[in-house]
Amino acid sequence: MMTDNTQQQTETTPKTYEAEARKPWAGWDQVVRVVGLVIALVATVVTALFEIILSTLRTGDLATIWRGDPIGSGGGPLIGLSVVLAAVLNYAIAWFVVTTTRRRWALGPPWALWTLLVLAAAGVRTREGDYLLGGENWVALVMILVGSLTYAVYSYRLILQRPPLS
Q1: Out of 101, 127, 150, 155, which could bridge 33 as a Cys pair, Cβ 3.0 to 4.6 Å?
Q2: DSSP secondary structure letters along the chain
Q3: At what angle do helices 108-122 and 138-160 cross, to 10 degrees?
Q4: Residue ranges covered by each domain of the chain
């Protein structure tokens, strides 16, 4: 006479007709890293241009922009919105590129690109002879400092972290 335990052991499990899960292609890791770096570089260009444009934003612009006037044409003091955006967006880009590529060196290209774009804007004149980021615009100067320091702080924090055990 069979006991319940031995009967369960002798029964065969029904055969399933599901296909075995395929192993992912080994090259996906490299594709994700390259695409992550490209996305970070595109985001760097977009955010740098956005921050440069908003560096001349004044309190009076909040009313004049709705009439179709350009940014900076309104009166009042400068608004430091581009400084806040430089800190937040550069930190987000740094986090994204390091997270998607899983490489610390990937922080360098967005940092260098952002710095070059902003410094180039500080040395370029418009057709009227004005600088895109003038020396009298305190928001632009602080934005350059804070934006680059954001990347530097993120990089320093990566240096202080221990590398993962492999």
Answers
A1: 101
A2: ---HHHHHHHSPPPPP-PPPPPPPPTTHHHHHHHHHHHHHHHHHHHHHHHHHHHTT-BTTHHHHGGGTPPTT-S-S-B-THHHHHHHHHHHHHHHHHHHHH--GGGGHHHHHHHHHHHHHHHT-B-TTS-BSS-TT-HHHHHHHHHHHHHHHHHHHHHHHSPPPP-
A3: 160
A4: 28-160
Structure tokens at 67: 């009439």
CB neighbour list of residue 137: distance below 8 Å, 6 or more residues apart? 55, 56, 78
107 sits in the region (left: phi over 0; alpha: psi -120 to 50; else beta) called alpha
What is the reported pTM? 0.78
How far apart are the C-alpha atoms of 94 and 116, rounded to whole Å? Answer: 16
Cα–Cα distance for residue pair 110/65, rounded to 1 Å:
31
Percentage of the residues of the chain whose pLDDT score is greater than 70: 87
Residue 141 is which amino acid? L
Backbone angles phi, psi at 42, to 5 degrees: -65, -45
Query: What is the DSSP annotation of 15-55?
Result: PP-PPPPPPPPTTHHHHHHHHHHHHHHHHHHHHHHHHHHHT
